Amino acid sequence: MEEMRGSAMAYFANFSDDQRQLYESFASLMGRDGDGKVSYREYSEFIRKQGYYDVPPNLFMLLDKNNRGYLDFEECVTLFYMITCNRFLFCGGHKCNSHLLGLHFQCVQCYKVGKKTYNLCSTCYRDTNFNHEHSDFLDNYDLLQNKPREARNRMEEFSKTAELYYKRSSSDIQEKAKTFFESLDNNNDKKISLDEFLGFVSEGGHEKMSDRGFFEALDKDGKGYLEFMDVMGLCYINKSGRPFCGRCDEFIPGMYFTCSKCFEDGNNLFSLCPKCIEDGKFVHEHDQFLDNYALLEAKRLEGIASKHQKVRN
User: Fold this and answer.
1) Which of 27, 58, 174, 313 is in the most buried spot, having the most CB atoms within 10 Å?
2) Among 78, 69, 68, residue whose Cα is nearest residue 4
3) What tens digit of pLDDT does each residue of 271-294 get?
């Protein structure tokens, strides 16, 4: 619990104004008498009323490190950190159910698709004391490093596609691409800075591209600026209609799902990243979705059927 408490206080030290306000509301709801101490009765009533059903029954005792019968400021911050950062994970091993406070193992497949995670303590993972549909596990530290690696790999694949698109284009399109790059390069240094990039997307009304995160995604090598081929990725997005997720607003460099009804009707496309369609927490008027590969195949088969129909007529 000491490691958890240290993480919580580091988290608190870097709170934004909004986060501090949220914590103050949290603390006032829990310690209603305003004496700066939260008794077990106040704590229990708060946990019950807020519906925090995943909280382990012995958590108050674990937080109250000096066994004084109340929670002080640091201990309340620790509780806030554990609740808001979802630190209530339990081992899924056979008859274990231990609270996972530090290093543990997570199912990679469940984590990737955004399902409820399946977690194991080190002992249960070592002794194979579990029965789960998947067998690929990583510890929580390695899993955290693995996610950005996967994102970088998807962006590198996208960048290679954009480069191929440019190289296989006509000389006229290549010339237009060079002109486009030069229009972004205000100081003619053959590099597109973040300011130059943001100026372009702001003036062009490309709201979903107007942040540092999207710039950094294009800057796959982390140089701090965009070179010509990086900007070709931007051209390719505009030309190919590569989408942003209709729920989380993230750019989708790989496979995505599109509403086939909107596609057929010629309306504005509504697309979702794999994680958001798996979660199902999106709002849209239709429920017919196909991934980009299946949609392309459906259009191909539709074209064949139409051709055969014309031959019969």
Assistant:
1) 27
2) 78
3) 998 888 887 878 898 888 888 878
